[in-house]
Amino acid sequence: MSRRASETYEKMPPHKTTNLEKNCGQIFAKGPALTREILDKMHKNRTYILGYEIETKQFWMLSGLVLLFLLSFSGMIAMWFTDAFDNIIFSKLAIVPDSDSYYMWVKPSPKPYFKVYIFNYTNVPEFESKEADKLNVKELGPYVYEVSLDRVNVRFNGSQVTYQERRVLKFMPHMSNGRRQNDRLVVPNIPLFSAAAVNKHSTYLGRVGLSGLLNSLNAKPFLTMPAHRFIIGYEDNLYSLSKSYMKFRNQKPLERFGLMSGNVGVREDVLTIDTGLNDINKLGIVDEVNGESSLKHWSTAECNNFNDATDGTIFSPKKIRNKRPVQYYYKEMCRAIPLYFEKEVKILNGKIPAYRYHIPDTIYDTPDKTPENQCFCDLDLGECPLQGVFNATPCAFGAPVFFSFPHFYNADPALREAVTGLNSTVDYKSYMDLHPTLGFVMAGKTRTQVNIQVAKSFGISQVNMFEDGLMLPVAWIEFTLEDKTLPEDMVGIIFQTTFTVKSIELGLKYGSLLLTAVTLFGILLVLRNKWINRERTSSIRPLQRTEESV
């Protein structure tokens, strides 16, 4: 060691032992003795704990009872005062790769149905020749199609999953009440009315040019075609030309035009939803549509928002359990549709309870009746549709498409009186029967009518015979999932989640409560016996001393 280092070491102050070091030293020194002392006090028959004498058997019994009491009491608190059990069950619903819930979600086994009721126009020649003042319609249907759904192009990103829907429609003749796919129908030429509406505010020369083009294509306001082509899709010269125009405007038209052509094959929309991995109450919530977190069709952020709406197959379990309102995103109307709790019902032959949620009549109200619908009006033109119809033009490539309840239920009387043949007593209600605990759809029906509005303008001769703003009913569609047609695996899941899970929950709830009470009673009984024995012992000892003194 160098001289400087030696001097530095000599100048260092002496080390002082701290209290912590003293205590640690005492523990290490006395630890074995303390352990030996405790073990010495635990004789075969008697044990001394904290100055009290107790039989060894009673000691082990009391220890076991205390341990059971703590466990059962903790379980009772968890089952009665927390959501621990629910959260464990809900976590099984999260859409996680290679899980049961994922396979059920990506290729669901239930097969819903589209039931299409088409309005056949029976007096077009008389109307064109002005022999008839009004057009007459006759409802034909239902044309029933079974829907097979799966989700494709699935990509996971954290707690989100992005996908597209693929649908296959299969005609069901035995459910169609004698209707056939080759039934000849007279229906509005929607591409023609769309072209007239898009060019309504163009120059006069532009409108005349469009009219000449329509004449060269021999385009008429009404078409005669088989029902299947009108439903699934068709292509004619006018629509081919319209597709080229839409592609020029960077739009993505359907390959074929038809009532249900957007529901055949892979749908264009790319949806991103929450998987429920981090928060099960966000399961199914739509985060993005085509990469956008909100729509751009409407005048306010509230109406453009869909971030509290699900994809329509499952809803927040907590909201459903508390019977709170929910929403689902309806692509055809480009908006979130509200659902409100209506009543408790029984499905599957009255064996399964369900919460019925309904679509309110107010979704087609004017702002005078329902102020929150103001943002769905055309603020640029200062126009709102009549009572009972919803203007979906902004999300239909400019086509004047309007939605309503079937047969213009709850709509302005002028809409129903504009044509003849409509029925005011048709069932219009839309509802979903949801699982009361888990929130998934078990059955339901949604009913929507598609209408096309006439946009009359000087120069387009093809629409001269109509009144401007005339609403032509095209068809109404019922999308239904019937409990009687659910596959066996789905019925099994419903019964399991309804009864088995509930039985386990009740068993754990009341089992933990009963076990807590029994173990507490046992602890008190052991302590009571110990206290009685101690009293007896203390009363005997003075007597023994007295005898000894005598």
From TrEMBL:
Subcellular location: Cell membrane; Membrane, Caveola
TM segment ranges: 59-81, 510-527
Pfam families in the cross-refs: CD36
GO cellular component assignments: caveola; cytoplasm
Membrane topology annotation: Multi-pass membrane protein
GO molecular function: scavenger receptor activity
Principal location listed in the UniProt entry: membrane
Keyword vocabulary terms for this entry: Cell membrane, Disulfide bond, Glycoprotein, Membrane, Receptor, Transmembrane, Transmembrane helix
Similarity field: Belongs to the CD36 family.
Protein name: Scavenger receptor class B member 1
